[in-house]
Amino acid sequence: MEKIINSLKIYLYGDSEKQAIIFVHGFPYDHTMWMNQINELQRDYFCVTYDIRGLGQSYVGDGQYTMEAYVDDLYSIIDELKLVKPVLCGLSMGGYITFRTLESARVKFGGAILCDTKSDADTDKEKLIRASKINQINVEGLDKFVESFVPNCFADLTIKNKPELFNDVLNKSKQHNPIGVKGALFAMLSRTSTKKFLKKIDFPTLILVGKYDKLTPPKTMRKIAESILHSEFKIVPNAGHMTPIENPEFVTKSIKDFLSIISKPKL
Ligand code: MLT
Fold first, then answer.
1. Domains of the chain and any CATH numbers
2. What integer pLDDT is reported at residue 265 of this predicted model?
């Protein structure tokens, strides 16, 4: 089922009486990155996903976004759907949104799944790179930016052995409105660090990272896992930064196992 909440396109799968999982996608992608997992999990869970403001089918507006606006968007979904103790599952930029949402703690959460992400804010060097990407989109156009950014998100072996997966993501990323993509870059470069919050996480957390992730490598994510009390850390074989797409079987099974421990599926 599809729904519009707060000008965002929301996609709902499964029975709304069951434990809710909210899937938050990465940049510059859309909700479809989670479809392999949702197809499998919707039998036992209420799976909620959406296109982040400015991307996919959601509202673009003026592109003046902040991480806090993304967090407000996520809470508007939780409020409107009246979700009780949802589990949040975010990848990369979706992980930044997840961490900050958990930190702001306006409702209780049942658990968290963090894939290929980090808790640090951008360094000055990273901010300057983001600024140059915004400029690249202005001067050379979105396609050139996407062609330079997306290959780094995949393991070399995925691009070589499964080019159809890579090309699908590449082509979809070129369909976004450039204003939304620049807005996301600005929101990421101006986000706060959630590093100090990690020690305060008191609910079960699963940390997944692709073995060949070049953007948020296993050593970065292992440190995150070590800072969280009840965390489980897994390296996803045969995958780069796009774990749910590059190794869907491993990611789905890991999420399934994690969820079955933290919440018994309602029959
Ligand atoms: C993502 O996959 O969401 C991005 O790589 C995040 C980032 O650029 O920091």
1. 2-262 (3.40.50.1820)
2. 55
Atom of ligand 1 nearest to the CA of 242: 2
* Angle subtended by helix axes 67-81 and 178-189, to nearest 10: 110
Instruction: Give the DSSP letter of residue 118.
Output: -
Residue 237 CA to ligand 1 centre (angstroms) = 20
| Percent of the chain residues topping a pLDDT of 70 | 99
Helix (H, G, I), strand (E, B) or coil at 119: coil
Q: How many CB atoms lie within 10 A of CB 95?
A: 27
Average pLDDT over residues 140-144: 98
**CA–CA gap between residue 16 and residue 168 (Å, rounded):** 31
3-state helix, strand, coil in the chain (%, to 5): 50, 15, 35
Pairwise CA distance, residues 27 & 173, whole Å: 9
CA of 55 to the centre of ligand 1 (A): 13
The two three-digit tokens of residue 142, written as one number:
């979105």
C-beta separation of 118 from 94 below 8 A: no
Q: How far is CA 59 from CA 73, 179, 183, 224, in A?
A: 11, 11, 12, 32
